[in-house]
């Protein structure tokens, strides 16, 4: 039974791992974009 369960668990783990990595990179992208936009705003008002 344990051997049958393992592949599914591993697949679930991989899926959640990839999803977390994507979520982290998306968050990083959003953060970078908002920082760049904030600097644009600062330059515009300067």
Low-confidence stretches: none
Number of discrete helical segments: 1
Structural class: mainly alpha
Q: Indicate the radius of gyration in whole angstroms.
A: 20 Å
Number of strands: 0
Domain count: the total is 1
Care to describe what's here?
The radius of gyration is 20 Å and the shape is rod-shaped. By secondary structure, the protein is mainly alpha-helical. The protein contains one helix and no strands. The chain has one domain (9-46).
Report a brief summary of the structure.
With 46 residues, the protein is mainly α. The chain has one helix and no strands.
Topology of this protein?
Elements: H1 2-45
Features:
46 residues, mainly alpha, 1 helix
